[in-house]
């Protein structure tokens, strides 16, 4: 198992200018004929990647080659003696129906689909399967008309025809692209069609291809696509560059979606949505992912990555773009709050454990393991910091330069840096450390006020703990968007400071009274701010003009209070509700009508996982006990207010998915959660029964799931009866049960792994049951270790069919060192058991071995 290192990068020996592919599609034996026009760039042999390919014939400039002219291994085809410019033709056989990895060409439901990023193309044909080889593609597909009437690939459909029972179609993509952006679909699908006129007046034909019957659930995806196309024109001046844009939905998919040029392939979960079947969060997920993949057309496809170490160059930037898009649709503050909530829950956690890696890793065994929240979400934070540091105008200029300078080429993080640097006079050099060093900086502060001089001095310090392979950290360049508040909560000064040294002092003049600083407004850097007193937090929670920091102060306050309660509980003391927390929740609730979306976020207590991350030895049972006790106490104390809020926000139509309706439901369901925690379960039961809206039905079910009695069992039985035929809704049925805090959750999950609708071959189903269970903060960590055993058993079996998903599940045990010694040894034993498995995939090997290191 050999590591690939960034430092070893060498440019390709041969480039491919054009490639013609001809597919005769058959589940058991697909024939792929490839014609490559190759051009030498450097001395050396021609080495092509290829896996699971049966080579049938090979020709160089039209002449058939004998076995003595090439060397074939498990993963490559090498030709030593080749000219500088030539044509290579290969013919291979592949077997889509046995491809369970869902990488390359595979079968799902009604047909053939591909997933080539990052290294799936080498399972289709012999090719230099690396993103810095960009070629123009001409693709012909041939298939049985009765089974696969729809034939799609990248670019434009230039010819089609029929021959007997077969049909064929030729697609040509005028834009050079890396092999990972190749795609084909051959299936029995129907299209929802529309069109979009670009800013310069070109007409683009839009198609969303789904299984018959699903057309009624494509409206939101189509709306989002057109909206995103317009937004990218308005915001970044980026126009779509082909005459056709197709999206095809597939139910077996490892990721959320894929940005193949002109032919995005989507997990059905991010296409299909109707108010009866999808929650408001699902609707937002569809919109976000549709926008994200569309935005890749420029940041990913037109400008791609030189190598996979640069993955964040396209992913971090495109996540930033989709975040900005979503912020422009609803409430920017609420969007920021929910993004930061998940960054802290996932990326901060990874950054603090054995799997921590920089935004640009220096080394990997298996690139599929690096599609992480660090590459994506922390990468987006780095892009955001560029903008915070240089300002919106310069950032837009930097984007224009980046696109213009790197169009139709494979770029690096340095190219992005150079474009931004060219747009500003601020020296950005030190920002590169965010790409190179892993770990979450901790920032602390001291302050002093001099009444005579009327100055206020703020001293900021940064420190970053060691991460694997990086014992000593250099200081980061940290933008600190801040304000100084007077005693009434008014801003007396606002500024963005730059903290670039281990310690730096900033003096502010004309400050007559000691102010209250509000630091890292709108989360201006992915750091942990330490040392805020409760009193300060309570003041900021009530007064800060920055909505994000108001929310954050309340979360930090609640975290401190709940962590104290955990200590008290561990010491055998009874739970007592903190008066300040009660006051803050009361104020939020009574003021909810002003901004219900914000209030719904502010009413949520910090997640169990966040509390866990703040403890030196995680006590999952105490955390759960305390958090539930707090919810119950708040629900009981504020019963009248929660009932009033529930009633006040209940009046929205089931079919309404406007921002206003989403916010109202969020607030109503937050109230429902507290009332259920306080024992008022009839409300949840009634809401479950009356549901015509999946957000409401599911919110009710989540509360009913906590009751370990027949009310729960009846609800799940009736939900199952109603939705058994709808895979995406059935996923929710599995996942709510796996996430429940009820005492019998583990046993129920064990039973569900044997359910007839549980299917290890379907990644959505695996994530819905096993992924959700592994994220259940208390039940997965049940002291017996049976939860770990269940996860490891799944990984064991899954590794043989789908190593990508198996490796992903393994990360759930990455934080094993944070638990008590008993749980530590139980998790460690399972990781060791996985590692000892015969024929373990490199994917899972990398995650298990790094977790144990
Ligand atoms: N680029 C794809 C992810 C591919 C995942 C490969 N394991 C989707 C996206 O980020 O837009
Ligand atoms: Zn992406």
From TrEMBL:
The gene is pepN. It holds the Pfam family DUF3458_C. It catalyses: Release of an N-terminal amino acid, Xaa-|-Yaa- from a peptide, amide or arylamide. Xaa is preferably Ala, but may be most amino acids including Pro (slow action). When a terminal hydrophobic residue is followed by a prolyl residue, the two may be released as an intact Xaa-Pro dipeptide. InterPro entries: Aminopeptidase_N-like_N, Aminopeptidase_N-like_N_sf, PepN_Ig-like_sf, Peptidase_M1, Peptidase_M1_dom, Peptidase_M1_pepN, Peptidase_M1_pepN_C, Peptidase_M1_pepN_C_sf. GO terms for molecular function: aminopeptidase activity. It comes from Acidocella aquatica. Residues 89-181 form the Aminopeptidase N-like N-terminal domain. Its cofactor is Zn(2+). Keywords: Aminopeptidase, Hydrolase, Metal-binding, Metalloprotease, Protease, Zinc. CDD domains: M1_APN. Its EC number is 3.4.11.2. Residues 222-434 form the Peptidase M1 membrane alanine aminopeptidase domain. Belongs to the peptidase M1 family. Residues 535-853 form the Peptidase M1 alanyl aminopeptidase C-terminal domain. This is Aminopeptidase N. Residues 439-530 form the Peptidase M1 alanyl aminopeptidase Ig-like fold domain.
């Amino acid at each position: 198992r050999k590591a690939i290192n960034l430092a070893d990068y060498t440019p390709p020996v041969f480039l491919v200018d054009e490639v013609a592919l001809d597919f005769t599609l058959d589940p058991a034996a697909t024939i792929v004929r490839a014609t490559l026009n190759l051009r030498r760039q450097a001395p050396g042999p021609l080495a092509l990647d290829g896996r699971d390919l049966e080579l049938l014939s090979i020709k160089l400039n039209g002449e058939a080659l004998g076995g003595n002219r090439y060397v074939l291994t498990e993963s490559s085809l090498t030709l030593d003696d080749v000219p500088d410019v030539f044509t290579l033709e290969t013919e291979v056989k592949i077997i889509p129906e046995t491809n369970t990895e869902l990488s390359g060409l595979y079968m799902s439901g009604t047909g053939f689909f591909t997933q080539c990023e990052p290294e799936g193309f080498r399972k289709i044909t012999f090719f230099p399967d690396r993103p810095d080889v960009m070629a123009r593609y001409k693709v012909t597909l041939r298939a049985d008309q009765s089974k696969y009437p729809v034939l799609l690939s990248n670019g434009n459909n230039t010819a089609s025809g029929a021959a007997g029972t077969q049909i064929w179609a030729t697609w040509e993509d005028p834009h050079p692209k890396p092999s990972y952006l190749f795609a084909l679909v051959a299936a029995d699908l129907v299209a929802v069609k529309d069109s979009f006129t670009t800013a310069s007046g070109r007409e683009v034909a839009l198609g969303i291809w789904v299984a018959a019957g699903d057309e009624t659930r494509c409206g939101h995806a189509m709306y989002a696509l057109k909206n995103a196309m317009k937004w990218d024109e308005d915001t970044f001046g980026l126009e779509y560059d082909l005459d056709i844009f197709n999206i095809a939905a597939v139910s077996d998919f490892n990721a959320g979606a894929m940005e193949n040029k002109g032919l995005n392939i989507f997990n059905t979960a991010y296409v299909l949505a109707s108010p009866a079947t999808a929650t408001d969060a699902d609707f937002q997920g569809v919109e976000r992912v549709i926008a994200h993949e569309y935005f890749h057309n420029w940041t990913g496809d037109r400008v791609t990555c030189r190598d996979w170490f640069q993955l964040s160059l396209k992913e971090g930037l495109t996540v930033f773009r989709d975040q900005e898009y979503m912020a422009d649709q609803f409430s920017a503050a609420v969007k920021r709050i929910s993004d930061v909530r998940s960054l802290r829950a996932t990326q901060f956690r990874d950054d603090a454990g054995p799997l921590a890696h920089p935004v640009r890793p220096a080394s990997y065994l298996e690139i599929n393991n690096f599609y992480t929240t660090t590459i994506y979400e922390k990468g987006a934070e780095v892009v955001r910091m560029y903008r915070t540091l240089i300002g919106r105008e310069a950032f837009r200029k930097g984007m224009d330069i980046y696109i213009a300078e790197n169009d139709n080429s494979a770029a690096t993080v340095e190219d992005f840096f150079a474009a931004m640097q060219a747009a500003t006079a601020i020296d950005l050099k030190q920002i590169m450390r965010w790409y190179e060093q892993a770990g979450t900086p901790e920032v602390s502060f001291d302050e002093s006020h001099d009444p005579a001089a009327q100055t206020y001095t703020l001293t900021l310090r940064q420190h970053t703990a060691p991460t694997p392979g990086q014992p000593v950290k250099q200081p980061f360049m940290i933008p600190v968007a801040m304000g100084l508040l007077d005693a009434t909560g008014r801003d007396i000064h606002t500024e963005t400071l730059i903290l670039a040294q281990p310690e730096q002092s900033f003096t502010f003049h004309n400050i007559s009274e000691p102010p209250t600083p509000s630091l890292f407004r709108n989360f201006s850097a992915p750091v942990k701010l330490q040392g805020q007193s409760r009193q300060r937090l309570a003041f900021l929670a009530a007064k800060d003009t920055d909505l994000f920091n108001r929310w954050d102060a309340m979360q930090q306050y609640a975290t401190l209070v709940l962590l104290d309660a955990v200590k008290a509980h561990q010491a055998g003391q009874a739970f007592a509700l903190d008066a300040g927390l009660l006051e803050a929740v009361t104020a939020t609730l009574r003021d909810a009508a002003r901004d219900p979306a914000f209030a719904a976020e502010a009413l949520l207590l910090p997640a169990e996982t966040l509390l866990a991350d703040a403890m030196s030895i995680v006590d999952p049972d105490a955390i759960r006990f305390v958090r539930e006790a707090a919810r119950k106490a708040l629900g009981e104390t504020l019963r009248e207010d929660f009932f009033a809020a529930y009633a006040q926000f209940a009046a929205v139509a089931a079919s309404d998915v406007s921002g206003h309706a989403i916010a109202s439901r969020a607030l109503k369901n937050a109230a429902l959660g507290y009332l259920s925690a306080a024992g008022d379960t009839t409300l949840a039961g009634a809401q479950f029964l009356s549901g015509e809206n999946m957000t409401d039905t599911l919110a009710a079910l989540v509360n009913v799931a906590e009751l370990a009695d027949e009310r729960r069992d009846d609800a799940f039985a009736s939900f199952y009866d109603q939705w058994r035929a709808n895979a995406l809704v059935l996923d929710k049925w599995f996942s709510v049960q796996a996430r429940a805090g009820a005492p019998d959750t583990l046993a129920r999950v064990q039973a569900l792994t044997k359910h007839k609708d549980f299917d290890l071959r379907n990644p959505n189903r695996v994530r819905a049951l096993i992924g959700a269970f592994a994220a259940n903060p208390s039940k997965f960590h049940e002291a017996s270790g049976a939860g770990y055993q269940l996860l490891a058993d799944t990984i064991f079996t899954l590794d043989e069919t789908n190593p990508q998903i198996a490796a992903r599940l393994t990360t759930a045990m990455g934080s094993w060192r944070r638990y008590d010694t008993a749980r530590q040894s139980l998790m460690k034993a399972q990781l060791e058991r996985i590692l000892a498995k015969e024929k373990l995939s490199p994917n899972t090997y990398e995650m298990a071995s790094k977790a144990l290191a």
